Amino acid sequence: MKTILLLLCTAAIALAQTPVSRPNIVFILVDDMAQADLGCYGNPYNQTPNIDKLAKSGIRFTQAYAACPVCSPSRASIMTGKHPARLKFTNFQGGERKDSTSPIDPANWIKFLPASETTMPERLKALGYQTGFVGKWHLGGPGDETAPWGQGFDYARMIGKNGLDYYNYGIFEGSYKKTVVDSGRNYLTDKLTDYALDFIQSAAKKQPDRVQPFYLYLCYSAPHVLIIPRGDKVAKYLWKYEQFGGKYNPYYAAMIESVDEGVGRIRALLEAQGMDKNTLIVFTSDNGGLGIPELGPIPTQAGRLRKWKGFTYEGGTRVPALISWPNQIKPDQTTSQYFTNSDYTPTFLEALGQSTDGFPDAKSIFPLLKNPAAPFDRGPIYWHYPHFSNQTSRPAAAIRQGDWKVVRSYETDQPELYNIREAETEPQDLSKKYPQKAKELNQQLTNWLTALDANMPISKATGKPIAR
User: 378, 151 in Cβ contact below 8 A?
Assistant: First the structure.
């Protein structure tokens, strides 16, 4: 019903759009990748030539953020343009960790993206787009209505059984009734690329005159643990392991190389089909990298940034973000302007000449795509993670406003203050040096949590949610 209403409301606008004004959109989302993992962000060990070329073809963002430091809420934000706190979808699916030593229990939360939410593919379908999903979903609940095929995707290939195993897994093909099972023959990252190519080729056949563009949401599970690479990609990293003092994980590097190879294959197909000049490509991650041993050795580290996945510090929330759109975005640009991944929805809509009203948690960064040096005030961005993660983080919230950032522990109710422009490593809490700034941002955070009626951790002493 929601898709039908969108179609009726926007059909006239869609028909008025010229083909060149409606680019194909390829959104590539990787899982648990740190900025510091890529060559274009300075990594000297991992080999990512195709992703580096993508960065050179458009804009590289050095201060892009995920709306949450764990996967499911971050993905929900990308899908809807809403903050996870507004959705009450604040933890990764399956995340139920508690801590017997803590004065609080995690907040109550909604454990899937409701079918009532309007998703990005539903918005684009209303504008005439073909829509395709491939990979890790991690947003579904009971029933088909919260699966990709119920949330706006015409073509859907969703990882099902054994989602953490790269050689023994199942893929749902457009339905829970049809499953393709692999038993050690096809590497999962390569299989997801194959599906992505299949969708693009199918979409190309349906748009010989380029009238009906497509939206591909490709969600690689890599380089999320388990750290299982293709065997033929590991040796080169083992040979140079000692040259870097054992700083990098060779098996993790090989996993990233498979993702990079997939990016190269997709761009090559777009070029062969004559689609490359009018295709907008986004490459980003759902949260920061994993910096501790979990289901195996430590995968990665966040470079200069503090902490890792699960934390509201920079290492948990800052992500790689590359955007390319030939003839529309100038090549080889870098910007330190910050934004968060809820901003993709209004950005795509503005690129298509649509209204960006009705997104209180998001702001279009389309002006930055046209001119990264233009004045741009994103305003405050927030994080709300009222849970205990698998990566040792504890319930916390944060706000960034301009150069300043406050991180607040929900257990102690104490705000920490940092200046990100001066020291993005967050080495020293400045709250005692600048008490008024810390108080001001902390109050702004409280006001935001209150306005959204955010789901708060539960006090063990009272059995009620703690104060915002």
Answer: no
Identify any residues that bridge with 319 across adjacent strands, giving them in sequence order. 64
Per-residue burial over 234-269, b = 16 or more CB atoms within 10 Å of its CB, e = otherwise: beebeeebeeeeeebbbbbbbbbbbbbbbbbbbbeb
Q: Provide the phi-psi class of 409: left if phi over 0, else alpha when psi is between -120 and 50, else beta.
A: beta
DSSP 465: B
pTM tops 0.90, yes or no: yes
Q: What are the per-10-residue average pLDDT scores of the chain (468 residues)? A: 49 41 94 98 98 98 98 98 98 96 98 98 97 98 95 98 94 96 95 98 79 94 98 97 96 98 98 95 98 96 96 98 96 97 98 96 97 94 98 98 98 97 96 98 98 98 98
Strand 130-135 and strand 155-159: pairing? parallel
Sequence-ordered list of residues with C-beta below 8 angstroms from that of 412, at least 6 positions apart, any chain: none
> Which residues sit opposite 284 in a β-bridge?
29, 321
Dist. CA 308–CA 289, nearest whole Å: 6
Residues 6+ apart with CB under 8 A from 464: 458
Q: Cα Rg for the chain, rounded, in angstroms?
A: 21
